[in-house]
Amino acid sequence: MKLKRFVIVLAFVAMIGALLQGCGKGNNDGSPSASTSASPSASTPAESSQAPSDENVTLKVWGDLGNQAVLEEPFKKINAAFTAKYPNIKLEYDFAQNDQSLNVALQANELPDLFWVQGDKTSKMGEMVKNGFLKDLSSYNLDVSRYANSEKAYCTVDGKLYCSLPSFFDTNVVYYNKDLYEKNGIKSPATWDEFVQGLDKLKAAGVTPIALAGKSEWDRAWPIFAFAPAFSNAALKAAQTGDGKLTDPTVAEALQAFRDFADKGYFGKDFLAQDYAAAQFAFTNGKAAAIIDGTWSNSTYVASGMNLGRFSIPNKDGKKIVQSSYSNFMTYAVASASKHPDQAVKYIEFLNSLEAQQILEDAVGLVPTIKDITAKDEGVKELAVFDEAGVNIYTVLTALSTSESNAADVLMKDVIPKLMTSAITGAEGAATLDKAAKYPTK
C-alpha cells in the first residue's frame, strides 16, 4: 500500500508541478525560509461548532514565502490574536511555502497542519482533494454567512468546503509617480491611446516609462495579465467555454501590445536582466515613472513615501476591464494527515473572521470584497476604480490545459520570453497558445 500511494503521489506531483505558483508575486527560487511565531497570552477560548479539547497542541503552519515581506507583520498580529483566543493552541508559523517546498511535501506526504491554497484559480486544490491530501471542512458547519456564492465556490470541490474563504480582490494596476507625470504634463489616462501618448512623452524626457522585472517569470507577466482583459475579455471568455479560440485577433493584439512596449523602449534598456526588487527600486527612486503590479503590493509603494497614484489600464474605448481574482493571502487548508484537525479548523474559523481580515487590511491595504471590512485609506478605494471585472488569462489557459499540454505554462515559459525579445509576433504567440489549448467539446 505504501508503494502504491507513493506512485500515486509522484504521478500527481508530475501533473500539477507546472501549476504550483503563488498568486500575485510568486516565489520560485527555492530560497531558504524565514520564521515568525506568535507569543500566546491567556484568554478564554470562544465556543464553536466543534470545540476542540483543551489539551495543549502545536500546529505547524506554512505561510507564503514569496510574499513574506508583505505578510510577515500582519500575520504576527493575526497569530498573536489567535493564540490569545486559544491559549492551548501554539502556532509554529513559518514562511516556508513556495513551489519547491510544497512539491517536496506532497511527494513525501509530509504536509504541515495548515498551508495556503489558491482555491479554484487553478486545478491544484482540486487535484489535492482528489488524491486525499486535504481535509473536508463541511462537517464543521463553519459560519459563511458573510460571504457571496462566488467566494464559497472558490473553496468548494464537489460540493464540499476545503479552505478558509477569500475576502479580498486581486488585480493588476499601473502604479505611477504623480510628480513625474505632472512634470511631463501627463494625466491619468482615460483611453489606451492617452496611455501610450503619456509613455511616449516620458521616454522623450529621458524617463523610463514602466519598470519591468524581465528576469522574473511571474513579475514580467503582469503587463500581459493587465492587457488581456482590456483587449480580449470577450474572446478569452469564449475560448474558455469552447465558443471561440485563442486565435481571435484581439488575443493577438494584447500580446502584440506587450511586444510593442518592449520594442519601443517603454520598459527601459536593461529590463531583461532586471529582477523584481530592482524594478521596484527603479520605480520608487524615480528612475521609472510607473510599474504594473498587483494590488497586493500597494503597501510596499505607499511605504516608499512617494507621491503615488494608481489607475487601471483603459481599452481603446475608454473602458477599464481588469483581471479579476480572489486573493489567497488568507485562504488556508487543513492537511488530511493533521493530528489535530479540530484545532486546525479553529485557525480556519479565525481567518474567516472580521477581526483577522481587518488586521490584514490595516497592514496591507487590499481591496475588500466583504462590506464590513473597512478599507485602509483612499488609496485602496483608488485600486477599485474600474468598469468591469474581467477574466484572468492564466486561469483561462489553465482551464484549457491537460496533463499532456499546459497552455498556461506555455504562456509563461515560451510566449512571454519570446515576445520580450521580439522573437515572435502577437499573432504567432496566439497561435502557439491555440496549439497548446484543449478546448471543451460542445
Word description of this protein:
The protein has helices at residues 2-16, 68-85, 99-108, 124-130, 149-154, 178-183, 192-204, 222-241, 249-263, 276-284, 298-303, 341-351, 354-364, 378-383, 393-399, 407-420, 426-436; strands at residues 34-35, 57-64, 89-97, 114-116, 156-157, 160-161, 168-170, 172-177, 290-294, 308-311, 321-323, 325-326, 332-334, 367-368, 388-390. The chain is α+β, with helices and mostly antiparallel strands. The chain has 2 domains: 2-169 and 326-368, 3-Layer(aba) Sandwich (D-Maltodextrin-Binding Protein, domain 2); 172-323 and 386-436, D-Maltodextrin-Binding Protein, domain 2, CATH 3.40.190. A 5-stranded mixed sheet has the order 1-3-2-4-13. A hairpin with a 2-residue loop joins strand 5 (156-157) and strand 6. Helix 1 (2-16) runs antiparallel to helix 3, helix 9 crosses helix 17 and helix 15 (393-399) crosses helix 16 (407-420). The chain is globular.
How do you describe this structure in short?
The chain is 42% helix and 13% strand.
State the domain count.
2
**Inertia-based shape:** globular
In spatial order, strands of the major sheet run 1-3-2-4-13
CATH architecture group name of the largest domain: 3-Layer(aba) Sandwich
Largest sheet: 5 strands, mixed
Measured on Cα atoms, how large is the radius of gyration? 22 Å
CATH superfamily of the largest domain: Periplasmic binding protein-like II
Q: Percentage of helical residues?
A: 40-55%
Number of strands: 15
Give the CATH topology of the largest domain: D-Maltodextrin-Binding Protein, domain 2
Q: Which blocks of ≥5 consecutive residues have pLDDT under 50?
A: 1-49
Task: Provide the structure class.
Answer: alpha+beta
Strand content: 5-15%
Number of helices: 17
User: Mean pLDDT score, rounded?
Assistant: 88
* Ends distance: 40 Å
Which CATH C-level class of the largest domain is it? Alpha Beta
